[in-house]
Amino acid sequence: MSESFLSKRVDRSAAPLAVGDxxxxxxxxxxxxxxxxxxxxxxxxxxxxxxxxxxxxxxxVPIGAYSAGAAESAKASVPLAIRSWIPAAVIGVVIRGxxxxxxxxxxxxxxxxxxxxxxxxxxxxxxxxxxxR
Length: 133
Fold this sequence. Notes:
Layout lengths: L4 H5 L5 H21 L6 H22 L10 H26 L7 H26 L1
Helix pairs in contact: 2-3, 2-5, 3-4, 4-5
């Protein structure tokens, strides 16, 4: 009997990675909002982070960020996370730009920042998590 697509992409042993990934994404957004003096509370943080969390939810599973292999080593986990973050960030920036039309002039810069900081945050936390195991 063959495994379903979802069962190949999601493994219970990777559940702690999902928690850390969400925290890393929220931290990137919170730091960015703080640097722009726009972090006014948890509702503002969640509203700003929602497009990126949605992008992450849509991309991380099919790409395999929570597969059995991702739960085994940093060598497998970090690249899967970064490969998931790239399209997730694009989705987040596009949604954010559509919601905030005045924002569109700086979308390319914002995308570059989100690609870099998100990759560092998610990849970095996963690297450290595996080193501390």
